Predict the 3D structure of the following.
Amino acid sequence: MIVAGCDIGSLTAKAVIMKNNEILAAQVMRAKSHPEESAAEVMGKALKQAGLVLDEVSFCVGTGYGRASIPFAKMVESEIVCHGKGAQWQMPSVRMVVDIGGQDAKAIRLDDKGNVVRYVYNDKCASGTGRFLEVMADALGIDLTEMGTVSLSSQNPTSISNQCVIFAETEIVSLVNEGRNIADIVSGLHKALAHRVAALAKSIEVEEDIVMTGGVAKNEGMFQALENALGKKIKSIQRDPQINGALGAAVIAAENLRK
Amino acid sequence: MIVAGCDVGSLTAKAVLMNGSILGHAVIKAKSRPEDSAAEVMNQALAKAGLKMDDIAFCVGTGYGRSKIPFVNLTVSEIACHGKGAQWIMPSVRTVIDIGGQDCKAMRLDKDGNVLKFTTNDKCASGTGRFLEVMAKILGVSLDELGTISENAKDPLSLSSTCTVWVQAEVIHHLNTQKSIADIAAAINRAMAIRVGILANQVSAEKDICMSGGVAKNKGVVSHLEKVLGVKVKKLKYDPQIVGALGAAVIAGEKAKGGKVS
């Protein structure tokens, strides 16, 4: 039986297709201006990768910010629940998921079945979300995807005194003008973001094993910074951390079929 | 006896010269070094008053760059200076709301202008002058225009976010969907007033209320703030940007007379 999950986020759209509890295809793309279009395109890509057509998908669950606009989803589920299920499918020992997206950050505590015990999220303040790094990458004139590697050569991370994205952006510009080392600045930014996200996670008590999901988890510098801020190891997941929500949606789709 | 106050802020520098009454004052855009801002703004104020530096018996410095002003005899916090300055202009004032370029403060005063309670936000750009600056830039209008065009709003929009970054995205969306600039400006000024109103409530704002700082010149924000607080905001008869420097000069006067400085 073929099932699918589709996660339409603010910046990216993700789709996962599963058959008999195995992943057949997974796709990530940049979101279009209309969530319907993003959904159709990302699912089209995943179907192509799996060599399938939409009619062969028995059940599809939609999630993410644009979940209400996915025409082919039979059911919608919150991102929190999907991230929990996705992480648990990938690593049964997981008890905490820290997800940093383009416009929010969440910390989710799970039981041994992947059900959500407690969660907390921030989508009110851009500081503490992926947007923080995006704005700073822009201000530094480097690519967002380069930040992780750039930061690794830092010897002495710069401390960033402002929390607000708007104020921190000004601070970064003056640090660059003062001739500070870019690697040190980037590393300082990772530290600042990690600190914010760790505070979020600590508010619901951190429990191991911990995994990190969302696009920001691909940033190696951020991964290390978050480990430092939490004072605990974070387990690496094998799959692309960006597909975790869509994967969880597909897992829920399969559960629904079995019911 | 001639006394002076010099307020070096993040975006502007202000100086006031007094001898019982105001002899001269100046406001300039801040330079990259606070020392330079202080020297220039004080020279401009001195030129207007027809005085020279040596004529000043006592000078108090305040503001973000106060520790860098070479010619001061004393530095005092902005909070205390704004209280003294507002009270000097309007003795009936009991609450001062000061919105600067990078922060916002609310303070409640006793009848002598001493600060009873205060609160400040300099952590989040929302609710500070910077919020308006960012929005004016996206709308392609000047800061002054932002305050006046909102008066032409026919159908003021609302904004669901507080964070400057998210509001920026909302404003861009409104522009892309062809909403009128006046309606967007009204939403921006209202959002600003709501944030500032929260600070005012934290100090249990009491009448009379006045505003200082550059944003006090924005009519849109003032009228929305009046709605949020449910009371009139009294207009000060001097440039609201000089209140801090004026308060510094008032304190300099007290000090020069050997009076008690609170």
In short: The mean pLDDT of chain A is 94. Chain A has eight helices and nine strands. Chain A touches chain B at residues 103, 124-126, 131, 135, 163-167 (CB under 8 Å).
